Amino acid sequence: MPFASEAVKLASEFGFTDRIGLHLNLTEGVPLTESIKDTILTDNSGNLSKNFIAVLRHGHKLNMAEKEAVMSEVKAQMELFRAYGLTHPHLDSHHHVHNEIQLLGMIMREAADYGFCSMRILRNLMPYSTPRDVVKWFYKYIQNKRIAKKFTHTDYFGSVADYERYGVNKRGSIELMVHPIMKDGVLSDSVECDSIKILKKNRT
Questions:
Q1: What is the C-alpha separation between 192 and 190, in angstroms, rounded?
Q2: Residues 6+ apart with CB under 8 A from 149
Q3: Spacing of C-alpha 202 from chain mean position
Q4: What is the pLDDT of residues 72-120, one digit of tens each?
Q5: pTM for this predicted structure
Q6: Quick count: other Cβ atoms within 10 Å of Cβ 124?
Q7: What are phi and psi of 15, to 5 degrees?
Q8: Residue 29: is its pLDDT beyond 90?
Q9: Side-chain half-sphere of 1: how many Cα atoms within 13 Å?
Q10: Of 3.20.20.370, 3.40.50.720, 2.60.40.1930, 1.10.287.370, which CATH number belongs to 1-120?
Q11: Would you tell me how many other CB atoms lie within 10 Å of the CB of residue 188?
């Protein structure tokens, strides 16, 4: 994204480049590679688009050329991560695209080759009240088992709202997903508009 270099510069100046992992991006902005621009996985301008996820979830099976284009982009982002001098071996992705069933295996193999040993699991702080919830939970359980075979991970992952609804009594490590924004003096999550109580408490 446009301010990645500036962010890395700030991290270097303040001494925390060893605490920044790779946030793979296949769903927004300008890609690093040319081949992906020629696929249906980008928009009409050749930019990465959230439509990528919709294409995958509506039954499109990636052909060989599309798989190669996606993995070329993934490799380019891993190479840039290295070139920035970042060393923390953790990987996750924008809009959780690495969770997609057609991509997870390929990304896991590439991540291992590049020395990543930690990966974000699928969101598993969730309800179990409907048959659909149970199906989603089972899918995530299987995918998380695949991740666990090769990568370290937290026991649970979800938003602040997920934690407040389903995670308060959980035992184990929990990763909270936040998109901080200060609005009217309140630190909130810009995606869910939930007050980030933990961060607000620390700030005050």
A1: 6
A2: none
A3: 25
A4: 999 999 999 999 999 999 999 999 999 999 999 999 999 999 999 999 9
A5: 0.88
A6: 21
A7: 75, 40
A8: yes
A9: 15
A10: 3.20.20.370
A11: 20
